[in-house]
Design a protein that fits this description.
The structure holds 2 protein chains of 2 kinds. By secondary structure, chain A is an alpha+beta fold. Chain A has one domain. Chain A is built from 7 helices and 15 strands. In chain A, the strands form 2 sheets. An 8-stranded antiparallel β-sheet of chain A has the order 4-10-11-12-13-14-15-9. The longest helix of chain A is centred in the N-terminal third of the chain and has 11 residues. Chain A is globular, with a radius of gyration of 21 Å. Chain B has one domain: 4-Layer Sandwich (Purple Acid Phosphatase, chain A, domain 2). In chain B, α1 runs antiparallel to α4 and α2 packs across α4. The longest helix of chain B has 17 residues. Chain B is globular and about 50 Å long. The N and C termini of chain B lie far apart (55 Å). The chains are: A alpha+beta, B alpha/beta. Chains A and B meet through α4, β7, α5 and β10 of A and α5 and β5 of B. Chain A: Pfam families: TIP41. Chain A: Belongs to the TIP41 family. Chain A: InterPro entries: Phosphatase_reg/MetRdx, TIP41-like.
Chain lengths: 290, 269
Amino acid sequence: MAKAAEAWDGPTAAELKAAGAEAIPGGVRVKGWVIQTHKGPILNSASLQLFEDKLQTTHLPEMVFGESFLSLQHAQTGIRLNFNPLDALKAWKQEALPPVEVPAAAKWKFRSKPSDQVILDYDYTFTTPYCGSDAVVQSTETMQTSLDESSNLCWEDTEDRIDLVALSAKEPILFYDEVILYEDELADNGISFLTARVRVMPTAWFLLLRFWLRVDGVLMRLRDTRVYCCFGSDEAKPVVLRECCWREATFASLSAKGYPSDSAAYGDPNLIAHKLPLVMQKTQKLKLPN
Amino acid sequence: MGTSDLDRQIEQLKRCEPLTEAEVKALCLKAMEILVEESNVQRVDAPVTICGDIHGQFYDMKELFKVGGDCPKTNYLFLGDFVDRGFYSVETFLLLLALKVRYPDRITLIRGNHESRQITQVYGFYDECLRKYGSVNIRVIDRKQEVPHDGAMCDLLWSDPEDAVDGWGLSPRGAGFLFGGNVVSSFNHTNNIDYICRAHQLVMEGFKWMFNNKIVTVWSAPNYCYRCGNVAAILELDENLNKQFRVFEAAPHESRGVPAKRPAPDYFL
């Protein structure tokens, strides 16, 4: 996306200086972290073929922003967190949920059909349990968009919680971006997308990886991953918390509660997240590599 | 409604200025008279330029006309999906409709699956009409009816070619057919045609051949949804049916009404 002077000009030089931060291409360097985003176009035929080969499928979202990513690297510990479409789709392929039938399917069942019909049964909603890729990288020069599945980092369950009060403070924002990793319009039966948003403040960085699905007339599914790092006194030992929160509801159950049942009312996941019952929630802490 | 009125309206719409509600009504009535006389299978003579999805990207459609030539100098066949997603569905659709009324033999508009009440209510056109006119009456685009969930009309508007099957496939959604290379070959053979030209699916390069050049998808919305970075294409057929794809890019940001936005920072939680 092209940048314009309108709306937001980015942080002021004074804000960056006060935070000991430095603007770099596509990101910011602050408190030992290098935080960057990249936004590319959707896959062309050649790169689509590469994705299909790597994922062993010919069914991919209509819009895969193959080169786009959000990356957070901590030089001293070698921690590298990365959010990219290829790894997200690997996780989709692995979870392999059964397909969701659209409302028209009920009527379709009674139609005459060709006898040699093949029924395709991949998960066309591209629901993914992906909550990011991580690794320990020796040299920060290494720039790979996809990381090995065998991650060197370990996340442990914790009673700690992301500090929402601190995050609600209107600190200056040193870097902000939103990256779409993939999106599909479900052939006009709703919407499915995976996006990563990040904001970096003088005292912390915070990101939200969101998978959002609406199959019109059938169900809505929200899978949020929030990752938070509050800059402590010891720059060599960052504390990184990750909260996964999955919500889901059928249109039928919402309308039984008296909520609207037309899809037009559910354009913005932010406005309805609280109406969707919780399916899973867990908070983990990143174990620092030795 | 005289031709001078129409010409004025066309000029106005080319500047992306919407018409008054009364003008829209008159235009729609006139368009309806013309469209109901057209048959379900419309014969179009070459030379003609075939265009795919536009999706309300008005300034990109102006690029299309720059590349393909103005109507009526160039004959056009639009394969539907004029509205939704983009910012200017109203102006896009009205311009095409006005051209249709002014030059009925020079431009053919066929209906895409987005030209239906149910779909536009979810994907933007409906809201845009409410915003720009305070009311919605999009009956004119009904091919005498709304799209049913069964029968030939539904199949025509909702079926896609699929690499993974040879014959017929059923979509994992449980509704909608997919067709493979064999189906296309036998259809082309039975109907004595060289190839099928269709739209409806996004292709990064603007057009895409499948099944040994038996079917081609044409996509005419560059940088779809203002973020995909894809190019668009139109297919020109000369009087001898020789093909030439013309590929074009999105209109530069300065020429469209909407400024490019750097995402405003948001204290999301």
